[in-house]
């Protein structure tokens, strides 16, 4: 939970510095602007348990539909309102507190990079926080990192993290995370004999 709070603090600081043009810029998430990504990240924090269940049922238990419902509900909120809400949701609330805050941590880190990468805004992620998210991304069905990494050896070149066995895929830990989360944008930072297999699973 402490890491989730730190991630959200970093996220709020990022949002506070964005211009109106940047808020309207495309993110790495298909069909979502930066504004939409932020809306998605926060769209569960204000829901009760029953409201979460109702949204899942309304979306027919299809993740893309469920997420679209949440984004639509926050379309009318201004960048300032979303930034204030991000700060108000430190620590996370509701559904995002699941697994000791791991949902907020993993979702927050991946989606923050969905914004930073297309805007060309780099960041230095805490190695401990990044290792934690890398490990969890391999296990959670929301990311499916373990499925994409099966039969491969992932090796981070900028921190002490290795996973699996087989042909190697090497690169910065953040790029490995984003690739596991099916972001092709990260592939140009990766190398190794297993890269083509990894890329096929991400893009295919």
Jot down its keywords:
three-stranded mixed sheet; 5% strand; 55% helix; mainly alpha; 3 strands; 204 residues; globular
Describe the structure.
This protein is mainly α and 204 residues long. It folds into two domains: 2-119, no CATH class; 127-203. Helices cover 55% and strands 5% of the residues. It has eleven helices and three strands. The protein has helices at residues 2-16, 20-23, 34-42, 49-58, 63-73, 79-88, 98-119, 127-137, 145-148, 173-180, 195-203; strands at 153-156, 162-163, 168-171. The chain has a three-stranded mixed β-sheet. A hairpin with a 5-residue loop joins strand 1 and strand 2 (162-163). It is globular and about 45 Å long. The N and C termini lie far apart (34 Å).
How many strands, which pairing sense, and closed or not: the largest β-sheet?
3 strands, mixed
Which range does the strand content fall in?
A: under 5%
Derived structural class = mainly alpha
Computed CA radius of gyration, to the nearest angstrom: 17 Å
Total tally of structural domains? 2
Q: Count of helices?
A: 11
Q: Any idea what the shape is?
A: globular
- Whole-Å distance between the termini? 34 Å
Low-confidence stretches: none
Q: Return the string of H and E elements.
A: HHHHHHHHHEEEHH
Average pLDDT level: 94
Q: What strand line-up does the widest sheet have?
A: 2-1-3
Q: What is the number of beta strands?
A: 3
The proportion of residues forming helix, as a percent range, comes to 55-70%
